[in-house]
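During the reporting period the student researcher (J.K.) took over the structure-prediction task from the postdoctoral fellow and processed the backlog of single-chain submissions. One of the processed entries is reproduced below for the supervisory committee.
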Amino acid sequence: MFDSEIGGEKVRMRDTQGRRIFLATAGTALAAMLAWRFRRPFSAPASATPNWPQEVWVVEFSDAGERGKTIRVPKVLKTDDQWRQQLSRSVFSITRQADTEIAYSGQYWDLHDPGIFRCICCGNALFSSDTKFDSGTGWPSFWAPIASENVRQLNDTSFGMERTAVSCTECDAHLGHVFDDGPPPTHRRYCMNSASLKFIARPARTNLSG
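J.K. obtained the following structure tokens:
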């Protein structure tokens, strides 16, 4: 009887321990899934969000930075596989999955040439060198977009922080974040990823005099 009771107790202990391991494993897996989901709360591909607008308003700009018409254009909707075919792995990670490049690693943080910055994914005009400034952060920074219509702002609560993310209106590419510590006249700092941008140098003006 004594041995039987001990054996039964051992079985109950093993069952209890097994349940604890199962619950702990399940809890860890669930936490990991939630952490991954909320790490990028605004990075779902447009093709997975059918309620989003299929057309958007943007302002056209020439490569010389001249403002054109405000037009309504079809929203650029692609699957992740289609974006992967178009973009490099690092650019896809940043623009489509809301990653951030390492400070001072991008090609535009210290660029001072005149021109405009277009979206690397769709070519939408985003920023001008006229509003670019040295923020000392290692990322290209601007005190205003080239047109407010051409960018969107979204609430970003990833990593336990409250921030405002910035994306391209036309294709929803993640660009970076905007902060309230910029210079006059807006006191805004649009802190962008170089990988999200394509710089177009301002064409030299031809001197027709003489």
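The committee noted the following: The first strand starts at residue 55 and ends at 61.
J.K. will present the remaining backlog at the next meeting.
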